[in-house]
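Listing S7. Sequence submitted for prediction.
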Amino acid sequence: TGNDAIRINENINNVYIYNNFIDNSQYGTQITRDIIGVEFYNNIINNTVSYGIMFGNYGEDANYNILMRDSQILNSGSADFYFRRDTYDVTIINLTFDKSSVVFHGGCDETTTDCNMTVQYYANVQVNYSNGSAVVGQTVYGYDVNSNLKNSVLTNINGFARLNLTAYTQNKLQDYATGNVTFFSNYTINVTDGDL
């Protein structure tokens, strides 16, 4: 509780934020400037007055390589994500948030590569032979709507594979609420058994 429940200040690398319940604060998490490498997972941000996640401050330096996964942002007062300054390569995997609640501030540079996010979800795949036994050690491929390979993984000893597949990307010139983002689904999932 307070202004910033979690604040990562400038010039810090490789930060891990996990297993937190953040409730009733001004900002859930603020990642200020010149931060490289943040992994944010298994967190819940609830009932913020302003922003669930705020990137940037009033400085000039950017943030890079932010990974957020398996978390929730709920009931944000102003927006779930607020990009105040340049923030590159934000990847969101299996995150519950309001996709229409993303704000890009004028502090982002004028190019489309600045202030961007990639939204991904898991595709859990179980691969079995017709007799029910698991297909072990074979590659599962995920192809996007344009037939581009987006991810591939091997099945484990139980025939299970988890792919991270991109649903869409968004930058400061795009808006999810109007459908103006770059979509990559529906996906085609293929498996080839090398033993056949």
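Caption to Listing S7: primary sequence and predicted structure tokens for the chain studied. DSSP finds no helices and 18 strands in the chain. The radius of gyration is 19 Å.
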